Amino acid sequence: MNVYDSLRILDLMKAFGYEETMDLADADLMVLNTCHIREKATDKVYSELGRFREAKEKRWANERKQTRIAVTGCVVQAMGEGMLQKLSFVDVVLGPQRYHLLPQLLAEREKGSRPKMEADFSADEKFDALAPVQAHGARSFLAVQEGCDKFCSYCVVPYTRGCEYSRPVKDIIEEAKLLLQSGAKDITLLGQNVNAFHGEDENGKERDLGYLIRKLAELDGLKRMSYVTSYPSQMTDDLIVAHKEVPQLMPYLHLPIQSGSDKILKAMNRRYTTRLYEEVVDKLRAARPDIALSSDFIVGFPGETDEDFEQTMRLVERIGYASAFSFKYSRRPGTPASVMKEQVPEKIKSERLIRLQELILSLQKKANEAMVGKTTEILLTERGKKKGQLSGYSPYMQNVHINAPEELLGSFICVKIKQATATSLTGERTDSALSSSDDKKKG
Ligand code: SAH
Ligand code: SF4
Questions:
Q1: Burial 191-226 (b: 16+ CB within 10 A, else e)
Q2: Does the model's pTM come out above 0.70?
Q3: For ligand 1, is residue 301 a contact (CB within 6 Å)?
Q4: Whose CA is nearest to atom 1 of ligand 2?
């Protein structure tokens, strides 16, 4: 979601004549889009801002050029007005639902007004006020839902992003069309609880994610689709069946369970049991037998015993994830779990994380090795690290590197997989771009 927001900020400022630069010394405006989800992410904000400040002061000293600094994102929401007082060199501070105000606040600042902060919550106003989107590559993100009402006991999202909101179906279709016209071929639908989507159609009727996916699948040029992040108990049968019926829907699903212990899930205020989760997985596999599953895990949640953790390890093996993210529990101010007794010592959290990550890596390696010798369709999305190399994604969201000419960037090609590691695949091209119509649309 933060990548999506950052790109929208970029689109917005381009509409006001700005160009993108990665060189701080060259920037008239520096934007730091922040994340508050774990302590580590928040800590990074201050070191990054230190770099920004230094670059701003140097530019003024050397060239007498003014540099504006804007801070956006969830840390703003969490810190409130204190942020401006603490950071005198910052010009504009905007919460995650207010970044569309950036040009206006910068203009006011140029006229001599004081640094300002805006942190209200109305997401609908933001989407209406933003500049028209454009694809930033063949794989594009599209936010369909924002915010969260679940209040998991460890999580800051409901406090920083606000309550759940779904965009109207019409707006989403229009945005998807713009993305496809400007080069997108693969669209990832985004939402903190994307499968809680309940946007209105043109007749004011509430529609769910399964409906939206089927509508988007009718659009010309949309070759692949996925959605993230889903809440396990909101995987409806209709959505599950979409994985069988909608050919563009990738055989991949990120479905975070967080823990394999029902006791811990309850303490986390996750509203499902491991049994329900496994039933959903069975249904998904019945609908799409080759589906690759992924998850998030938190280790060392308050009260997590060795046995609770072992239950997580056993669940990971039972499900056989193709990939997964795992984190040490991070105490977030203002959340119920942060004041729970029985906080788990850091050392134990670290030991558990290492064991879980080793297990996940071994499963990832297995899933990747199963691809060796197979021919699969890859969307080439970026230049590789090595010269002459391009990287892209398999239908199962695996990272694939191949040697291919630069002009194939943005195309689908068939690749025979030769080698696999836990994190990526390498292969060789087996034919030219998959379909000629694909090539023509590349532009
Ligand atoms: N809405 C999604 C998750 C969004 S946050 C869901 O419910 O699955 C992304 C991930 O960050 C979460 O899945 C969780 O694993 C992790 N996370 C959130 N808060 C955390 C915390 N306080 N400590 C450690 N990990 C956390
Ligand atoms: Fe946070 Fe996800 Fe829980 Fe919402 S559902 S509170 S975003 S972890």
A1: bbbbbbbebeeeeeeebbbbbbbbbbeeeeebbbbb
A2: yes
A3: no
A4: 155
